[in-house]
Amino acid sequence: MAGDCGWRARFRLGSYGAGVIHPEVTVRPVAPTEFAVLERLWLMFHHDLSEFRGRLPDPDGTFHSERLRAAVDDPAWAAYLLWTQDRPVGLAVVRALDQPVRVLNAFFIVRGSRRTGIGSRAVREVLLRHPGSWEVPFQDDNETAVRFWRGTARAAAGEHWTEERRAVPERPDLPPDVWISFATEDSAL
Q1: Domains of the chain by range and CATH?
Q2: Structural contact between residues 107 and 113, judged by C-beta atoms closer than 8 angstroms
Q3: What are the tens digits of pLDDT across the range 144-181?
């Protein structure tokens, strides 16, 4: 394909996973029988984010999950589980599939698989499934996310990406989120 020589060729692991065996990762839509796996990974994801958001679990020990249900029920959303062999190692949630710009609403890799290249390969696969324009929000004080998402934007779009700060809706007590915007080079990937 003509697009293969463009952003796909640039999409490398970068400094992540140096010197570590890079296990294969499979990205697949959440099957109805896998929703409980998605929920458990969602809890881990929100536990990690609580460090940057100051958010506590709900009284039942969970974190809000309205978006999670939308991700599997709403056709404008997509939820993916990330697998290494038979082990779930992460999740990706995409929204605004019915809009010109998709939003990578959630992306999470379990700690035991971080810095192995799994995240870079998984996000590449998600982008390939929905070519076009993207926005990715993250927290500026999450230094690992800052490096990862800036590297992802460079890998996907070269120097053709932007970054801006946006207020967190209904949370004036929090610093603004960082939003990276980029487009994959062509929609015929």
Answers
A1: 2-183 (3.40.630.30)
A2: no
A3: 899 999 999 999 999 999 999 999 888 888 889 899 99
For 151, phi then psi, to 5°, come to -65, -40
Structural tokens at position 2 = 């003509």
Residues 2, 176: Cα–Cα separation, whole Å: 38
- Using one digit for the tens of pLDDT, what is the confidence trace for 17-26? 444 555 789 9
pTM of the model: 0.82
User: Both tokens of residue 15?
Assistant: 């400094």
Q: For residues 30 and 106, is the Cβ–Cβ distance under 8 A?
A: no
